[in-house]
Each structure stands twice: as C-alpha cells, then as structure tokens.
Prior knowledge:
Elements: E1 9-10, E2 36-40, E3 83-84, E4 89-93, E5 97-101, E6 107-108, E7 116-121, E8 127-132, E9 137-141, E10 158-163, E11 170-174, E12 179-182, E13 199-204, E14 210-215, E15 220-224, E16 241-246, E17 252-257, E18 262-266, E19 281-287, E20 291-292, E21 299-306, E22 310-319, E23 324-330, E24 338-344, E25 353-357, E26 360-362, E27 369-370, E28 375-379, E29 386-391, H1 400-403, H2 409-413, H3 419-430
Antiparallel strand pairs: 1-9, 2-19, 3-20, 4-5, 4-19, 5-6, 7-8, 8-9, 10-11, 11-12, 13-14, 14-15, 16-17, 17-18, 21-22, 22-28, 22-29, 23-24, 23-27, 24-25, 25-29, 26-28
Amino acid sequence: xxxxxxxxxxxxxxxxxxxxxxxxxxxxxxxxxxxxxxxxxxxxxxxxxxxxxxxxxxxxxxxxxxxxxxxxxxxxxxxxxxxxxxxxxxxxxxxxxxxxxxxxxxxxxxxxxxxxxxxxxxxxxxxxxxxxxxxxxxxxxxxxxxxxxxxxxxxxxxxxxxxxxxxxxxxxxxxxxxxxxxxxxxxxxxxxxxxxxxxxxxxxxxxxxxxxxxxxxxxxxxxxxxxxxxxxxxxxxxxxxxxxxxxxxxxxxxxxxxxxxxxxxxxxxxxxxxxxxxxxxxxxxxxxxxxxxxxxxxxxxxxxxxxxxxxxxxxxxxxxxxxxxxxxxxxxxxxxxxxxxxxxxxxxxxxxxxxxxxxxxxxxxxxxxxxxxxxxxxxxxxxxxxxxxxxxxxxxxxxxxxxxxxxxxxxxxxxxxxxxxxxxxxxxxxxxxxxxxxxxxxxxxxxxxxxxx
Length: 453
C-alpha cells in the first residue's frame, strides 16, 4: 500500500531490576480477530506465495523450565491445515525503512539510536513495534508503547521482539536468551543456560501463553504452551539461523538462515526462499490473512459435482475461508432459501465474493465482519447438497458462473462444470478439502487477472 504518515514514539524504559524486568500482565484475554506473526531476522528473507513440501528437521537443545526438546516428537502428527497466504506483510530494513506489501504498513522509522533488529506488528496490521539492539522500542501507526529495555544493564544486545496479540504487549529477547515482558507474561528464558550459540530471535504462540527462542545453530527453546516441532540444531548449515516466525495456529514455525534459507516444521508450509533481494532485511511481520479450509469441521464430508460452484454433502459448521464482510444471507430462489455471501477483504482474491447456499442455516448477519474462525452457517445433511463458489457482485443471490452465461438448464441437465466452479474447486483442494467431481470440459473462461490456485 502507499506510504502512510507514521509518528514514531520512543517507548519509555521499563522500571525494575535489570536485566530485562518483567512487567505485570494487564488486561483480559479477548477474541483474536486478525493475527500478525513477527519474525526477527538478521539476513535477507523473501516470502513467496506458493505452498510447497514441509522440510524435515532434527532436535536442538533443551531449556530448564521449557518443553524438553532433546529429541523430536515421535508421536504421529496430525495432517497440516493448508492455507493460501495473502501478500500482506511489512519488511524492516537495516536502515529503518518499513516496506509494506499488500495492505501492510509502509513508512520510515526515525533515525535509530542503534541497529534495528526486529519488528512485531499489531493485531489489526495498522501498526508495529520496532526494536533496536540497545533495547529501544519505537511504536509505529496504532501501536501503543508498553515500555522499553533502553538504559537497562543487559548481558547482551537485544536481538528480537515478539507481540502478545491478546494483551497488545510484547517481549524483548537478548542474545543470551534473557526475556523481558512488557504487558506480556514471562514464562521462561535461557539467561542461565550455557548456550552453544547465541539466541538470535523469538516467536510467540497465538494465545500469548508461550514463546520460542531460537539460537544461531537453530536450537529451539520452547516455553509456556509453545510446542517443539523440530530444529536444525544437529544439522550442518551453510549459514547460521538468524530468526524465526510461528504459524497462526501455533502448530509450527519457520527458521530462517542468514543466506535466506528457510526450514519449515509442524504445520508450517514451505513458501520458498530467496537471498537476492539486494537489501538487508532485519525483520518481517507477516499478516495471518490467508485462506483456510471452510469445511474442516464438517462430518462425513463428500464432494459432489462441480457446477456453478462445488456441491458438498455432510453436516456441521461452515466457516468463512478468509477475512471478509457478509453481504447477504437469504434468497428464495435457492433451495431452502439460504444464500450466504461475503466479500473477501484480504488475500489473492480480495474484492471477490463467495457464496454458500442450499441446506445451510445462516449464523451471520449482513454487514458482519468475518474471519477464518467465523461460522457462516450450519450444514444440514439433506438433499439437495450444499453449493459453494464465486458469487456475482454484490452477492445478493447470483453465482458468478450464472451471471456470465456459463450455466443454463441444459448444462445443469448434463452436469457440466463451469470455469468459475472449476476454479473454486481448485481453491478448495489447495486448502485441503476434497475437490469437486467434473463431468466433462468446463464451460466458459475466467476474467483476466482472476486468481488461480
């Protein structure tokens, strides 16, 4: 997005014993609407919007008070929930420039008092905290200061910052692993541990109840409710690890090396890596604006034919596949009278409309803001099967395929797929739902610039 005015505010030093005093948690735990994950790095990182295979990993070290991580988990892990990421994130360069992609924040940090080392974004994506090596914290956009480590006696420089997206506070971590919480809970550190390599970054769980610290050799130290999913601690690396980021559900994380290499663990998909951007990036804040399987909780789910959209049978809650705004809930022209539609506000299909119709009981209202955690309606296991796909703007009752002339009584009788229906089926398959059944060649074509999956 274009650069917006940013008024940096240097946060006041925290009070209390040094190093890294821990501020008492304040405020309650509210509902997370949008989540941002911070990844403090000291190398160049480019995040590509393509889903690939997961990387393997080996164990790192262990930390007193944390989750024992001397060996990788041996129990079978659940299949990862795939997501299609949005292109909304801010990168922080070594010179203090905040470069936004998609809807993320763009601006320039005031001249830092020491090297910038990390950034953590606010939950709404309209602000961020920038951390400097001397402990200074600078608030940008709608970020609120909760304190700073500047002026305190530290055993090592600050190397990262992570946000508690529940309280709005944050943590700072030093190279020896000492952690300071500012309206964020202290749940452990490596300050008294003999480390093979210095700590280089941290990431937090989405509920604010834990965090991971990562060392230069990729050893992982897990505290609170953070789980161990793997590390590069016993691997021979081309370049040291310089930072990490966690997935939105806390079920995995990425480790990033100084050459831009990325190692994915748990449910973290591999997006790709590239060290050739030409500028040294020290941190990146990634918005959880991706898409998730909206049928992930439907029981006895079965895909049926592809028509204007995709038909599915089963019973249970149907979620929104991404951030959006509800534009309609009923239309008597559809069997059962339900036609739930919403306009996506994030991700590759931002501005497009999605519908869910037939044998669905609406649970949302027009104008309601929805996320991947919002239940749009309850699917009833009865004929005719539920249909979901691309709606024609403004989503009042027409499917995009029908409005484009790709669907008629004759194509319905032959159960021919449409181009819009096939495209939506591909999106559902990319998210982990079963693809629809196509009987014949798809009718029609998609408009130029329509997203593909």
